Amino acid sequence: MVSVAEIKRAASVLKGRIIRTPLVYSPTFSKLSGFKVYLKLENLQVTGSFKIRGAGFKILAGANSIGPKGVVAASAGNHAQGVALASGWAGLAATIVMPEWASISKQEATRGYGGQVILEGRNLSEAIAKALELEKEGRAFIHPFDDPAIIAGQGTLGLEIMEELPDVDVIVVAVGGGGLISGICLAARAKRPGVRIIGVQAQACPSALAALEAGPDARVEPQSSIADGIAVRQIGSIPLDIIRRQVERIVLVGEDRIAEAVIMLLERKKVLAEGAGAVGAAALLGGLIEAPPGSKVVLVVSGGNIDFSLLDRVIRKGLAWNGRIMRFGVKLDDEPGALARLLVIITAKRANILQIYHNRGGPDLPVRISRVELEIETRNFAHIREIESALGEAGYTLDPGAGSSYP
């Protein structure tokens, strides 16, 4: 069992090496929910994620017992970077096995922190199997979540929340392998036994819920998710025991809601969160956090390591889901001024034109007809309907042909 004393020791070991990340009040999320909402900005942590807390304590506290070949870990991203950096602090070699699909940016970040990266495995389970082979050669395996020292390190985040907001009512935490929520539970409830801890998982990978219902051996097959950082097939046995006893409940959020939360955090609070870091906000926006009005609620923004290519896709999809982008096609007479007349209507409705594709040679188009596909920035769904109405009154028919869509 992980003790509060061990979490406090972890805080002492990590002092001066990690950032005491800000806990900031959010007027936007407070107004939307009716609670007093605070954001714990762990996306500003060293390596961009809470993972350095657990990896740092595990490696620094046990450095004297680690052999000359150093440590080995398996990770697709945040844990890899935490292990690599913490090993450097301890003067140890770090070998990180990453799945073959791990993003180039996370590979390079891990190398930048001093880790030797090995790409192997079609999924994280196969990467872990390779890491366990390397453990047999004399390297110390650093588990990402099912380890008391890792949980104690993650629990230092809970200590910080309770020191800054001792009367917090609800703490909302992402759940992947369970190490973070377990550590926060132990730290927070030791200080305030009545604090409610709510876990959040992506609907694409509800492994914790599966384990609570079917037992610790339960596994799920992760579907593709924006929240890839918590797409863990099987929750850890140590975290599961803590979650059973101390977490009030676990809720699930869908991909559209996660994308909405990523965008809102970025647009309203200038906070860049990865999908896993935004699931707490997603649960709040989805009305899944139940508490009396005015309750003090902390959302743990657990990380900010989102690939720019994914961020671009998330923003574009999220804006479309929220009525902020309208995409459509329309057929025009192929004559001078036809496109200009269309754009005059759109401009008059105060929409911002983002992209235009003018197709004059499609095999399905008559000789004197062209198809124009547009992407425009809109305020909301009501604005989209207003534009549709104006175009219809002017005699245009929105074309649901190839490459065009609108909400």
Distinctive features:
407 residues, alpha/beta, Rossmann fold, Alpha-Beta Plaits, 3 domains, 4-stranded parallel β-sheet, 15 helices, globular
Kindly estimate the percentage of residues that lie in beta strands according to DSSP. Answer: 15-25%
CATH architecture designation of the largest domain: 3-Layer(aba) Sandwich
Taken together, the total number of domains comes to 3
* Estimated radius of gyration: 25 Å
Portion of residues in helices? 40-55%
Main β-sheet: number of strands, strand sense, barrel status?
6 strands, mixed
Tell me the number of strands: 14
Helix/strand/pairing category:
alpha/beta
Helical region count? 15
Report the top-level CATH class of the largest domain: Alpha Beta
Separation, N- and C-terminal Cα atoms: 51 Å
Q: Spatial order of the strands in the main sheet? A: 1-2-10-7-8-9
Mean pLDDT, to the nearest integer, reads 92
> Which stretches of 5+ consecutive residues score pLDDT under 50?
401-407
CATH topology name of the largest domain, in short, is Rossmann fold
List the secondary-structure elements in sequence, H or E: HEHEHEHEHEHEHEHEHHEHHEHEHEEHE
Specify the overall morphology.
Answer: globular
Report on the structure:
- The protein is an alpha/beta fold.
- The chain folds into 3 domains: 219 residues, Rossmann fold (3-Layer(aba) Sandwich), CATH 3.40.50.1100; 90 residues, 3-Layer(aba) Sandwich (Rossmann fold); 77 residues, Alpha-Beta Plaits (2-Layer Sandwich).
- The chain contains 15 helices and 14 strands.
- The strands form 3 sheets. The protein has a 6-stranded mixed sheet with strand order 1-2-10-7-8-9, sandwiched between helices. The protein has a 4-stranded parallel sheet with strand order 5-4-3-6, sandwiched between helices.
- The radius of gyration is 25 Å and the shape is globular.
